[in-house]
Amino acid sequence: MEDAFWDSSSLVPLCTVQPSTPSARILSRQYGKAVWWATPLEVRSAITRLARMGEITANGQVQAMVKLDELRRSWTEIFPDDEIRDRAELVLDRYPLTAADALQLATALIWCDGHPRNRAFISGDAQLLAAASQAGFNTIQA
Questions:
Q1: I need a labelling partner for 17 at 20 to 30 A (CA). Which of 64, 67, 89, 121 fits?
Q2: pLDDT per residue of the chain (142 residues) written in tens, 0 to 9
Q3: Alpha carbons 103 and 88: distance in angstroms, whole number
């Protein structure tokens, strides 16, 4: 199975029932997962926000956390270092992204050794997908 870089927004639908859950599940069967070190925190934040907003039940929140733990056991996590931070600073100069999204894209660029051509980048964030596409990734909407 080929790996793809998955940002946090593409993983939340694998943990909770969202409109994009069916397509995210298909992608999950097609691609392995490479993620940024802070991804578990970002996904957990999204899950707790959904629970606070009443969009998932307390039981749904527990199930989502269990699913997140299952995903964590199978993905490749890229840890922070100076190279990622430096690349994220350059990404911010080039693309209209938040700091968190710049770290996601910088991590993806490090993950593929700076050669994004023919590498998949999966996200549910249109702005991040646009930047990843401009950087040379094959982008996939989750």
A1: 121
A2: 899 999 999 999 999 999 999 999 999 999 999 999 999 999 999 999 999 999 999 999 999 999 999 999 999 999 999 999 999 999 999 999 999 999 999 999 999 999 999 999 999 999 999 999 999 999 999 9
A3: 5
Angle ∠(41,96,138) on CA atoms, nearest 5? 75
Q: Distance from CA of residue 113 to its chain's centroid?
A: 18
CATH of the domain at 99: 3.40.50.1010
Domain range holding 30? 2-141
The single-letter code of the amino acid at 87 is: R
What's the domain count of the chain? 1
